[in-house]
Amino acid sequence: MNDINANALGYVVVTDYLEANTGKDVSDAIQKIIDENPMRTIYFPDGEYILAKPICTSGKPETAVSLQLSNFAILKAADGWDHTEAMVRLGAAEPYNTIYRNGSNYSFAGGIVDGNGVANGISIDSGRETSIRNVSIKHTFIGIHIKRGANNGSSDADIETVNIVGNNKKGSVGVLIEGYDNTLTNMRIAAIEVGIKLRSGGNCLRNIHPLFIYGYEYAEDDINFEDSIAFLEEVSGTNWYDYCYSDQMATGYKLIPGSKAVIVNAFIMWYSPRGNKEVGFQCDGDFNASITNPKIHFRGDTTNNAVLVLPENAGGHGFIDNPIIDDNLVTDKTYKKFVTGRII
Length: 344
Prior knowledge:
Layout: H1 3-8, E1 12-13, H2 27-35, E2 41-44, E3 47-51, E4 55-56, E5 66-69, E6 73-77, E7 88-90, E8 107-109, E9 112-114, E10 122-124, E11 131-140, E12 142-146, E13 158-166, E14 173-177, E15 183-190, E16 194-198, E17 204-211, E18 229-233, E19 240-242, E20 245-247, E21 251-255, E22 262-264, E23 267-269, E24 278-283, E25 290-292, E26 295-297, E27 305-309, E28 319-321, E29 339-340
Parallel strand pairs: 1-2, 2-5, 3-6, 4-7, 5-8, 6-9, 7-10, 8-11, 9-11, 10-12, 11-13, 12-14, 13-15, 14-16, 15-17, 16-18, 17-19, 18-21, 19-22, 20-23, 21-24, 22-25, 23-26, 24-27, 25-28, 28-29
């Protein structure tokens, strides 16, 4: 989309008000554009826009905006960034809870959000129909943070076709979910300690691909491989996972005791000779999850290979149906008492 088309569509084009690629902070100027153009789409042409502080949109329908970035429009955290909140805070200016009024369906779409190795990327602070789509998020400590929503904790957000590359630091997270009832679809997440961290239930995840990488752009890795987890649940709720792919993470899924997660067609694999821990699923208490058709591909030259890790004497009513594994490579056979169907 070029600037002429953006103007023809009635979008507010930020370069009509400020200059891109100056290397100077434009956060105040962008905030002014947002505040003065309620219920409009704010369009960013290709170029770099430096943010020294977070920019905030409103959750109130009458003052909400949607942020639309061209493919190579870059929002980049300034050197010396010193804020705990995300670079872009959706719904933060005026938290609100409605789906009935025009303007409730605000969004962030397109472009690149660059945390410059220190900042968090995008947060959803309030709203009911908020979407983030077609975005590349780079060099962030937390890529996306979905906070508790105003609807009794539900945030009801939709995240789709988003790629995240973290800052390879200890404690880094691709997506932190605290609000309930969100849908995440078609995502790749790399250079993080935890791919998806869930502190809520009622979430649906489809085709999510966390990948542990060894700091190709960094002098050394800050993350201990043994601590890496693709999907980490920290609440005893129910979340649904369909073809979620743990790629090289030490632990595929770590569930809280009693979790009733529904996991279908999980793919968990390792291929690098680094590290000596390969765990498909782990639960620190009774195992109550439903796992169907998991494919777990162990490397085979490690001595800590487990389909399921539980504390001694842990029980539960969960099951693992039709696991696709080479049992000869499994060193911890705990999983077998939960298997239904066949081991394939």
